[in-house]
Amino acid sequence: MSSSLKNLSDFSHIQVGSAAELKFAIVVSQWNAKITGALLNGAYKGLLDHGAKEENIELIEVPGSYELIAGSDIALRNQELDAVIALGCVIQGETRHFDFICQAVGTELAQVGLKHSKPVIFGVLTTDNLQQAIDRAGGKHGNKGEEAAITAIQMGLIHKTH
Ligand SMILES: Nc1c(NC[C@H](O)[C@H](O)[C@H](O)CO)[nH]c(=O)[nH]c1=O
Ligand SMILES: CC(=O)[C@@H](O)COP(=O)(O)O
């Protein structure tokens, strides 16, 4: 169901589980920093609300969403993590650059996760305009950063128990 029909950040209907024993990296892009900063706040809220320890959350900042790929690989290469949360905001400009970034980031983040056998969560907004991004970074359609954190907890627990 699309975000325009509901607030996807309502998790009251699911059992998320405890993040107390999990280690995370959040890789966040600096492009559209006001948006990605709001996504980051949501991600921290989601992790801490479910018991994650602050000392178990590493933060890595990268220039743009395209660099989330390398940043996630670096995070997983250097330490034992249970999940990586990749946060970015790509907004359509005048050219097809948007298409290439979104396609690459979506495809390659999945490949990074498979390479390391660890969950890499796609918390990247890909919007037509700034307002759509604002609405999904703590606005009327919730916070995709918080959603990504909940997904990271769920997938991290699945990896630990399978
Ligand atoms: N236009 C946006 C970008 N562009 C920059 C790329 O992500 C990348 O840093 C550059 O191509 C160099 O490799 N990045 C975003 O995150 N959001 C945008 O709207
Ligand atoms: C997604 C982008 O890289 C884009 O915002 C850059 O804008 P433009 O396509 O007008 O160069």
TrEMBL record:
- Domain of life, per the record? Bacteria
A single Gene Ontology CC term? riboflavin synthase complex
Q: Which InterPro entries match?
A: LS, LS/RS, LS/RS_sf
One Pfam family of this chain: DMRL_synthase
Q: Which residues bind 5-amino-6-(D-ribitylamino)uracil?
A: 31, 65-67, 89-91, 122
GO biological process annotation, one example: riboflavin biosynthetic process
Q: In which pathway does it act?
A: Cofactor biosynthesis; riboflavin biosynthesis; riboflavin from 2-hydroxy-3-oxobutyl phosphate and 5-amino-6-(D-ribitylamino)uracil: step 1/2
Q: Where along this sequence does the record place binding of (2S)-2-hydroxy-3-oxobutyl phosphate?
A: 94-95, 136
Enzyme Commission number, as recorded: 2.5.1.78
Function field: Catalyzes the formation of 6,7-dimethyl-8-ribityllumazine by condensation of 5-amino-6-(D-ribitylamino)uracil with 3,4-dihydroxy-2-butanone 4-phosphate. This is the penultimate step in the biosynthesis of riboflavin.
> Which protein family is named in the record?
Belongs to the DMRL synthase family.
Query: Which protein are we looking at?
Result: 6,7-dimethyl-8-ribityllumazine synthase
> Gene encoding it?
ribH
